[in-house]
């Protein structure tokens, strides 16, 4: 019995770490500090268009831009095959909702949260950002970006409590373990590559 209890405690430690790190860094869209860059994480496409969960994230980013709380939106997602391109779909959605194309920067190799955070720092030179995701994911995003050297605040957007929401919440328990290992061992992303001036250029345009 003690072994089982010990295993349960160890399994919950990564989640506890995420809650501690992200605890005072979560804000509503109305309260989040003004920051140059917002980062939106990919969340799947439906027939080439952002899934409802991803659309909610993008709506929040567009709202922050229109309110002058962010200047540039970095969209990070999966483009591992020719027929699946999250960043371009995210860019198109944002432009339809009032964000100028010149204010959007695409990261095509954001294959998971850690990769997105490390690439935001090392490739795009982001030192501070507002992160946008659903509530079940935002603590992990903040904790990982903090570990990657990006001073982060998280905005958790609303989501319908459907099967996807429950799946996402359950998945976070397992994902917390990987997140803790990433934060400790700091592996390189699947793709790193040279630095890109996209964010700097987007901030410089009038």
UniProtKB/TrEMBL annotation:
Highest taxon of source: Bacteria
InterPro entries: Cell_Envelope_Assoc, DUF218
Pfam families: DUF218
Residue stretches making up the DUF218 domain: 36-153
Name of the protein in its database record: ElyC/SanA/YdcF family protein
Signal sequence, start to end: none
Species per Swiss-Prot/TrEMBL record: Streptomyces venetus
